[in-house]
């Protein structure tokens, strides 16, 4: 009579004999821990670019800007702000929308934070980057206190928001909604690898050679169906988010609609890139189980590093992130929906995503056709 441990031994042997499964079983937790550690190991040393317009042009305001960028050693502060001067507020706001700076500071004429007086300074930050927003606000307020009123536990400078709304209202929501979108699209990589590995394992491609249909017909059909699924996913994500309070940026309702359509356009290109990656993975997968495991080993690092739910603080990992299509999509879509930047201004990210999608899909098709020949 076969006992339960015989079954356990049999199952263990099956697992051990599947080398790919064993590798994934061992590497997956190690990889996740490494990614988390590497992505955040530079925390506290990240530098945020902050633009400023100094309408005062006086020694006191100059000292304020200087101490923001280079706090004195006795304050025991890390340099986290890189101050960039602008001649006018329109140029400052434009670069903010394009994501070139993380915040803006406007010092009015007559800046004079003397005792018992209050000087107003406009400060706005990129609310879609939670870490940057909180760190910039805290640094400006602390420096104002230490520089102008170190004895009192309050800043002399009155920090106020801009009269016209620039930053977004729902900071965490905007960041997470857009990250959830790219995550939803990334699953296309998994479904593509799984479906084509299944077709390959079941002998569909062998039987297909006896019909007028070519391998390219099947691959093209798979691409179109996966893009359609991606658009449905994007619609569901944004529809749900909009119902619970998410609002895209835009001066008018038409601007908001145009920005949403621009985000969908970026989504289509991203879907093509992930389908290409899925084809590459399917080409190297011997069966469905391997396709599933390998897909998640690719998807998880991309989500950790490409700014889906947080921005890596380590400069090296930020550079590595350029190898993932989600990085370009996240930057473009966040600029469009969270800061109201026009699609045309994101041409650098969009072109990079187009090139990535074209290369990934081409390589995927070539490899898959070779492996199924």
Quote the distance from N terminus to C terminus.
47 Å
Number of helices: 13
Shape: elongated
Overall strand count: 5
Q: Which residues form runs of ≥5 with pLDDT under 50? A: none
Structural class computed from helices and strand pairing: alpha/beta
The averaged pLDDT comes out at 78
| Cα radius of gyration in angstroms | 26 Å
The secondary-structure element order is: HHEHEHEEHEHHHHHHHH
- Helicity range of the residues? 55-70%
Give the biggest beta sheet. Answer: 5 strands, mixed
Write up this protein:
By secondary structure, this protein is α/β, with parallel strands linked by helices. It folds into two domains: 48-160, 3-Layer(aba) Sandwich (abc type-2 transporter like fold), CATH 3.40.1710; 171-371, no CATH class. The chain has helices spanning 4-17, 19-40, 59-69, 89-97, 130-148, 171-201, 204-208, 215-243, 253-284, 288-305, 315-320, 325-338, 347-371; strands at 48-54, 81-85, 103-107, 119-125, 157-160. A five-stranded mixed sheet has the order 2-1-3-4-5, sandwiched between helices. Helix 3 (59-69) links the parallel strand 1 (48-54) and strand 2. Helix 9 packs parallel to helix 13.
């Amino acid at each position: 009579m076969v006992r339960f441990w015989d079954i356990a031994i049999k199952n263990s042997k099956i697992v051990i004999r599947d080398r790919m499964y064993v590798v994934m079983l061992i590497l997956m937790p190690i990889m996740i821990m490494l990614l988390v550690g590497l992505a955040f190991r530079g925390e506290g040393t990240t530098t945020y670019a902050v633009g400023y317009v100094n309408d005062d042009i006086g020694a006191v305001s100059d000292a304020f800007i200087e101490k923001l960028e280079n706090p004195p050693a006795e304050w025991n502060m890390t340099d986290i702000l890189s101050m960039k001067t602008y001649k006018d507020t329109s140029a400052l706001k434009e670069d903010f929308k394009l994501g070139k700076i993380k915040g803006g500071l406007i010092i009015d004429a007559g800046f004079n934070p003397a005792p018992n007086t209050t000087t107003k300074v406009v400060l706005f930050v990129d609310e879609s980057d939670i870490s940057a927003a909180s760190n910039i606000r805290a640094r400006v307020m602390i420096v104002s206190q230490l520089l102008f009123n170190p004895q009192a536990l309050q800043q002399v400078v009155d920090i106020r928001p801009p009269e016209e709304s620039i930053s977004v209202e729902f900071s965490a929501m905007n960041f997470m909604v857009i990250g959830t979108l790219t995550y939803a699209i990334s699953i296309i990589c998994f479904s593509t690898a799984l479906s084509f590995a299944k077709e390959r394992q079941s002998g569909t491609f062998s039987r297909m050679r006896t019909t007028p249909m070519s391998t390219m017909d099947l691959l093209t059909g798979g691409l179109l169906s996966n893009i359609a699924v991606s658009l449905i996913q994007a619609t569901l994500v944004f529809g749900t988010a909009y119902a619970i309070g998410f609002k895209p940026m835009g001066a008018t309702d038409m601007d908001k609609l145009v920005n949403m359509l621009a985000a969908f356009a970026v989504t289509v290109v991203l879907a093509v890139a992930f389908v290409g990656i899925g084809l590459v993975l399917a080409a190297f997968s011997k069966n469905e189980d391997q396709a599933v495991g390998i897909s998640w080993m690719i998807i998880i690092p991309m989500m950790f590093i490409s700014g889906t739910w947080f921005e890596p603080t380590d400069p090296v990992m930020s550079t590595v992130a350029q190898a993932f299509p989600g990085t370009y999509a996240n930057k473009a879509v966040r600029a469009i929906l969270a800061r109201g930047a026009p699609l045309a201004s994101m041409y650098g990210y969009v072109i990079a995503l187009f090139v990535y999608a074209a290369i990934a899909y081409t390589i995927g098709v070539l490899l898959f056709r070779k492996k199924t020949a």
